[in-house]
Amino acid sequence: MQVLPSAVNESLKASIAPKPGSGDVSVSPAQQSHTVEPDAEGTPRPSSPSGTTCKDLYAIVSQVGEGTFGKVYKARNVITNVHVALKRIRMEAEKDGFPVTAMREIKLLQSLRHQNVVRLYEMMVSNGSVYMVFEYMDHDLTGVLSQTQFSFSQANLKSLCSQMLAGLAYLHRKGVIHRDIKGSNILINNRGELKLADFGLARFYQKRRRSDYTNRVITLWYRPPELLFGATVYGPEVDMWSAGCIMLELFTKKPVFQGNDEIHQLDVIYRILGTPSTERWQGLTALPWYELVKPKDVIHGHFRELFSRWLSPAALDLAERLLAYDPTQRVTALEALEAPYFKEEQPPPELPVDLSTLEGEWHELETKRERAKKRRKLENGLV
Ligand code: ADP
Ligand code: MG
């Protein structure tokens, strides 16, 4: 396997070049044997001598994820002993060459560098597969929250919220909408650092001209009401709704709006936040699916009563501003970072460094496997 220089560079661009006349990208076998130079940047990253094969350079430790394009592995660089995550981009099923969504993620990630955005070290090509080499993160949020024996302090929760918002503020400033903020795409390491990952659905947006996008993005439970009402013209506010869902989930340890389908999703939101009206949300009736999905009856929300058990008054205020129905009223990431929850209310944020005491490494995949194991034991009458 060839190790390509850090980020996606000229060599990868050359080997994965768009087919003339089409929007597609492909890797030809001849191009895969492209020789490349190791990264000359000098930043701490796994060393990658030119010509070393992947098998030699990385020892697979375990599988940590099941990606859309293939598996995600924890691996160790045998020379530096640094752990990395290898995300395999499956090529077999791709009739049209290199998957466009993967290419989008790579190109996007290479332009990003922030302490709250997962770092893409380099790309590797081998036997028809392209691997993304990421910094390794011990857990994802879904995994950590499933560990009920472990609890974050209020100061830890504040730090996690603020790190998530700092990551989003950075992305939005760079003109990127993530479009898939959810627990399994938020990574945390044992130093208590939080990083946003999985840019498979992310898009550049133009600050002035709002483009027409698909609205089939964002996992249902984290999808904002404007998308459920059929909006195809939207902006970074969609991520802020998801961030509001994550903020509540951090405190309650459970996703708050668990709908089974689009209509039910809106219903679950209505039951907590109350039904939206044109007073609360001016553009509501102009949305494409308004007539189809509009609330049948008026429901009064009980958001504050419901969550005051877990959230402090200033945290509740912020969560409520993140979950504003009207996207134009929804707080931006930058504004959210200035909220009294961070600036005034005690305690100040503290990195959740205690995570290093949590036994095991928890990603959505291990959590799912653990649950399946428990279920099997139950079925076999072992517990
Ligand atoms: P997909 O697009 O299929 O959701 P992701 O990039 O979200 O792919 O990766 C799938 C899972 O793999 C994540 O939910 C996470 O648990 C794990 N994972 C991804 N990147 C890393 C990383 N850098 N370090 C550790 N685990 C990771
Ligand atoms: Mg993911």
TrEMBL record:
UniProt superkingdom: Eukaryota
Gene Ontology CC entries for this record: cyclin/CDK positive transcription elongation factor complex
Keywords, comma-separated and alphabetical: ATP-binding, Kinase, Nucleotide-binding, Serine/threonine-protein kinase, Transferase
Its EC number(s): 2.7.11.23
GO molecular function list: ATP binding; cyclin binding; RNA polymerase II CTD heptapeptide repeat kinase activity
Keyword Glycosyltransferase in record: no
GO biological processes: positive regulation of transcription elongation by RNA polymerase II
Reactions that this protein is recorded to catalyse: [DNA-directed RNA polymerase] + ATP = phospho-[DNA-directed RNA polymerase] + ADP + H(+)
Residues given in the record as ATP binding sites: K87
Domain Protein kinase: 58-342
Family the entry assigns: Belongs to the protein kinase superfamily. CMGC Ser/Thr protein kinase family. CDC2/CDKX subfamily.
PANTHER family tied to this protein: CELL DIVISION PROTEIN KINASE, CYCLIN-DEPENDENT KINASE 12
Protein name per its UniProtKB record: [RNA-polymerase]-subunit kinase
Native source species: Suillus subaureus
